[in-house]
Amino acid sequence: MMATTTYIVEYGDWLAKVAEEHGTTVSAIWNHPENAEHRAKRGSPDVLYPGDVLRIPVVASAPAVEPAPGQPQPSPAATPPVPDQPWPYPPFAGPWSTQPTWECPGGTCACHPVPEDEPKDEHVIVFYDPQGVRMPGARCRVYEQGRLITPEPSAADGAGEIRVEMRASTSSLQVEWAPAQLPPNEFLPYRKMYQVKLGGQGDTAVEKRLSNLGFSRGKRLEDNVRDYQRAYSREPTGNVEEIRLEVL
Predict the structure, then answer these.
(1) Residues 6+ apart with CB under 8 A from 56
(2) Do 239 and 191 fall into the same domain?
(3) Which residues are bridge partners to 175 per DSSP?
(4) Are 221 and 215 in contact (CB under 8 A)?
(5) pLDDT at residue 108, as a whole number
(6) For position 153, what pLDDT does the model report?
(7) Residue 79: what pLDDT?
(8) Which pLDDT score is estimated for 155?
(9) How many C-beta neighbours within 10 Å does residue 141 have?
(10) How far, in Å, CA of 68 to CA of 73, rounded?
(11) How many Å is the maximal CA-CA distance in the chain?
């Protein structure tokens, strides 16, 4: 029988994530004979709770192939730099420049001044790590249609929040950030489009809110709802009605 190693499920885990981290598949873990008790208890590979004990099949490494004498040595694959300090996000796979690029949408970008009398709104952006924990001191920049609207440097306050003033007509912002524990650097490695106006209580509003919270990998809303539910140790039903009120 294939060798296995023991893994204790942590908060925010789901089976596909565990499988990827161990170089195996969901099916290989779920169907392994040593996980029979787990299958009987949970009933579905989509159900996982902190403290669950899994037996993970150990994938044997392929033997290294030495080049023949006189053959050039293969170049190592380029890998993105990974910080030395603990990192709450997956390693960044960029790079991109620190300055976003924009196409000027008819007089609404950084190359056109904003009239002083144009109505303004204040908006609060909250920074969370993948476990749903607020990130005090996260270094950040916020752009409104290519125009930097936060002072340099800027960081989230003790509650993981930053307040920005923007045009009342703005529906989305571009946000760059880095966790506070990373060494100071001008380059902020994470970036996303942040939806300001959710547009009511419908499914589109839920989808925008989940995207703001970092749950936007799936092609379908149901998939992103499941990711949200897994992150908060809930049964991943994919039913949007179960989360609508709490996210909006």
Answers:
(1) 4, 5, 6, 7, 18, 22, 24, 29
(2) no
(3) 142, 192
(4) no
(5) 52
(6) 86
(7) 39
(8) 93
(9) 23
(10) 9
(11) 74
Q: Domain range for residue 36?
A: 4-57
Per-residue pLDDT reduced to its tens digit, 25-67: 888 898 889 999 988 888 877 777 777 889 998 866 545 556 5
Which of 208, 210, 110, 106 shows the shortest CA–CA distance to 167?
110
Statement to judge: residues 229 and 191 lie in one domain: no
Q: Identify the DSSP state of 146.
A: T
Q: What is the pLDDT of residue 212?
A: 79
What parts of the chain have a pLDDT lower than 70?
1-2, 11-12, 59-116, 130-131
Give the span between the Cα atoms of 176 and 146, in whole angstroms: 12
209 phi/psi in degrees, rounded to 5:
-65, -40
Same domain, 167 and 215: no
| Rg of the Cα atoms in the chain | 22
Q: Which of 114, 97, 90 is nearest to 176 (CA)?
A: 97
Residue type, 62: A
The residue with tokens 């023991």 is 6
One-letter identity of residue 164? V
Residue 140 bridge partners (DSSP): 154, 177
What's residue 9's pLDDT? Answer: 82
From residue 248, how far is each of 121, 166, 209, 232, 244 by CA, in Å? 19, 21, 7, 16, 6
Here the CATH number for the domain that contains residue 166 is 2.60.40
* Under 8 Å between Cβ of 212 and 206: no
Q: Which of 17, 135, 52 is nearest to 86 (CA)?
A: 135
